[in-house]
UniProtKB/TrEMBL annotation:
Lineage: Bacteria, Pseudomonadati, Bacteroidota, Cytophagia, Cytophagales
InterPro entries associated with the record: CalX-like_sf, ConA-like_dom_sf
Protein name: LamG domain-containing protein
Organism: Chryseolinea lacunae
Domain of life: Bacteria
Amino acid sequence: MKYVTKSLLLQSTLLVFSLNIFSCKDDEVAEKIPVAFKKSSVEANENAKASVRLELSKPAAKDEYVTLKVTSSTATFGVDYGIDNLLFLERNFTVLVPKDSSGASFTIHALADFEAEVAEKVNFVIEGTSDGLTTGDAKTLLATIGDVERYPDANRAISFDGVDDYIDLGNILDDLQLPVSISVWVWIDPNVADGSLPIFDSQDGLPLYNGFSLITSNISHIGVQYGDGQGENSSVYRRARSAEFIPVTGRWVNMTGVMRAASDMNVYLNGVEMGGYYAGESNSSMNSNSPNENAKVGILSNNGRTIHFQGKLDELRIWNRALTEAEIQKSIITKATSVDPGLVGYWDFNEAKGDNVIDKSSNKFNGVLKGGATRVPSEAPVQ
C-alpha cells in the first residue's frame, strides 16, 4: 500500500510539473509581440519613392528582426525598383526593429527604366521574425510602380559599342599625384563577352604603365590601378586593388575608387566599401608625367592589346584628394559643381548634340567622342 501511495504521489507530482511546463510555453507564446504592415499597399511613380511601415502592437523589449520575402513577375530589382541601400536582393531581406521602438520603416525607390509599360507590381510578405515577435494579421503588402509620363531628356549618357567607341580627353592630368578619387555611373551591356571592360585611363598610348585606370567586367568587379612608369607587361610596375561581387549587367550602378598609397586603396559599389584584394608589386609613386599619352574613356591599351567598354557611362568625376565614405554616398546621387573641393574633372555627358563632351570642372578638360559613341537617355539616379 505504501508503494502504491508513493507511486500515485510521484505520478501526481509529474503531472503538476508537466502542466507547469505547458503553462510556461503558453506564457512565452502569449508574450510574443505581433508585427504587421501598417498598410496593405503603397504606390509610387517612377523617379519617386514610397515608405513602408512595419508596426508592433507594443514596443520591442530588445532588438528584433523581421524577414521579408519579395516577389514580382513584372519588375526587376535594380532596374525597376530598389530598397534603401541594398545592393543585391535575393529571395529575402531583413529589417531591424530597434529596442523600445514600436516599428520600423524601409523605402522603396521606383526607378525610371525609360520603357513604355504597364504598372509594375512588387509583393512583400512577412516570412519570419526573431523570437520576440510573431506575425500579425496584415502580413502582405503590394507596391505598385506607375510609369513616368515625361522622361528627363536633358539627362544623357554615352553609349559604347565595345568595338571602337571611346572618348578622347586629350593630354591632361600629367601633374596628378596620389591621392586620387574617381567615380562614375555604369551600365554594362548584358550581351557583353567575358573579359575586362575599361572605364577610364588617365595616360593611354605608350607601352608603359603610367597614370591610373578604373576597370570593371561582366563577372563583375571594380578595379583601380596605377603605374609607376618604369615598364609594362609585368606586375612589378603597377599596383591595384579589386573587388568582386554579384554580376550587375543591365542595371545602373555607381563605381568609385579611392587611391591614397600603394597599400591604402578602397573600391565602392553604390557607396558601399567592397573590400577586395591587392595586386601588383610596385611600391613606387604613381607616374603621371607622360605628355605623349591622352586620358581616355571606354578604351585601354597596354600589354600589346586594346580593349573597349560595352555599355553606358554617366557622371564621370575625378578628384585630387581621397573622398570619405560619407562624401561618396552623398556625391554619387547629387550633381557636382565646379567649386567642389579637389574636383579636377567632371563630365556629366548632358550635351544635346555634337561630338564634344564638356568638362564642368574649372579645368575645362573637354573631350571628343570617337568611333561612333552615341548619346542616349540616362537612367542614372543623379539629381
